[in-house]
Specification:
Blueprint lengths: L2 H23 L29 H30 L4 H24 L23
Length: about 140
């Protein structure tokens, strides 16, 4: 990408970061942040921090997490089809090669944005993690 493309890309990211920051400023305060009766000084409302410096990486992390979830689901479906005997040997080989290439590309994208595959495993609180543990 040329210097003009880089500048345009940077401006777009700045616009996205600014829009996200505006949206998060509009969120109402959580009930625990509201002053209790008898308290004189209200505490500042907790808000999501939309750091313009990390918004691109965070968005990429979310997108790659969804892609990784779908990749793992496709892999499980492929293994199920192999176990069922629904595929010819050639189809099995092609499917295996395709899944390996997809995994390699996911790893490359993670490297490009300074992420690890473990970074994509979102913690869902009491539900546990989004993705199963790595083998």
């Amino acid at each position: 990408m040329g210097p003009e493309g880089e500048g345009e890309r940077g401006r777009r990211f700045d616009e996205v970061a600014e829009a996200a920051a505006r949206a998060f400023r509009l969120l109402p305060a959580a009930p625990q942040d509201l002053p209790a009766s008898g308290r004189s000084a209200p505490s500042p409302a907790r808000r999501i921090s939309a750091d313009p410096d990390t918004v691109e990486r965070d968005l990429v992390r979310l997108v790659l997490t969804l892609v990784e979830l779908l990749r793992q689901l496709m892999e499980r479906q492929a293994l199920h089809r192999v176990d069922q005997g629904d595929l010819t040997e050639e189809q099995e080989e092609r499917l295996g090669a395709t899944l390996m290439i997809l995994h390699d590309r996911m790893t490359d994208l993670c490297d490009q944005y300074g992420l690890t595959m473990e970074d994509l495993n979102l913690d869902l609180g009491p539900l546990g993690t989004l993705l199963p543990p790595a083998d």
